[in-house]
Amino acid sequence: MAASATKQSLLMLASLLVLIGVATGSFYDNFDITWGAGRANIFETGQLLTCTLDKISGSGFQSKKEYLFGKIDMKIKLVAGNSAGTVTAYYLSSKGEKWDEIDFEFLGNVTGQPYVLHTNVFTGGIGNREMQFYLWFDPTADFHTYTVLWNPLNIIFLVDGIPIRVFKNNEANGVAYPKNQPMKIYSSLWEADDWATQGGKVKIDWTNAPFSASYKSFNDVDCCSRTSIWDWVTCNANSNSWMWTTLNANQLGQLKWVQDDYMIYNYCTDFKRFPQGLPTECNHN
Ligand SMILES: *[C@@H]1O[C@H](CO)[C@@H](O)[C@H](O)[C@H]1NC(C)=O
């Protein structure tokens, strides 16, 4: 009797742990909705989050934790239909005047025309490192995984596991690299029709409002993170993990494919913009 009761409670404990394990990606546990007065919401017991935008306001959320290096995945499904003039921003940022930032921004378009994925990296409050891409799929038809892999060697932007951009640690050549300031994750859906779509020529059509973007399958397992300035959550970053990864030969091939076929803007080839010479990191790839 006693033995079987013990067995039963062990089983219950085990299933409870499984439940907790499943819940680690929960939006309730990991994020705070920070603006939009009810326009961003969490559904499906924490597994789905949506941001909406209407004529009055957009909406957004931010992570409870701060990260200092990590591999962070988020599945996002973007505003469908006529999304011209809308921007869905998904980024990591530290605070203060000399902040660091790693950006994904999705610029909407009229129905049937391609989204632009705009990326940037800020170090010490300075960006000007834009690279833009079309995607090889319709990002509004389904969820796709957008990943930031940020370690001491490089920052890798990935889409469905395919690297699209690498920002290397070029401190040896005098380029600042984000490595000291913890960053939070932020995301928002907002209106930017003065610049977002076809250079600002196409405005938002409010008859399509509310616009909506959805998020699921957040994963920050093994990231180095903290919930307050005192409590670092241990990161499982051994020598074989994401912590010391750079692109392998296969991934370099994928990066080349994306950059050859889908990149539409690269600050490192914009000689007109930098008549005095390209930024240093452009010559050290
Ligand atoms: C929208 O579509 C036009 C026409 O295909 C294209 O030039 C532009 O890059 C697309 N994306 C944005 C965000 O303007």
Task: Give a quick precis of the structure.
The chain is mainly beta and 285 residues long. The protein is 13% helix and 35% strand. The longest helix has 21 residues, at 2-22.
Secondary structure class reads mainly beta
Strand order of the largest sheet: 1-4-14-7-8-9-10-18
Helix content: 10-25%
The hetero molecules present are: 2-acetamido-2-deoxy-beta-D-glucopyranose
Keywords: Apoplast, Cell wall, Cell wall biogenesis/degradation, Disulfide bond, Glycoprotein, Glycosidase, Hydrolase, Secreted, Signal, Transferase
Function: Catalyzes xyloglucan endohydrolysis (XEH) and/or endotransglycosylation (XET). Cleaves and religates xyloglucan polymers, an essential constituent of the primary cell wall, and thereby participates in cell wall construction of growing tissues.
InterPro entries: Beta-glucanase-like, Beta-glucanase/XTH, GH16_AS, XET_C, XTH
Protein name: Xyloglucan endotransglucosylase/hydrolase
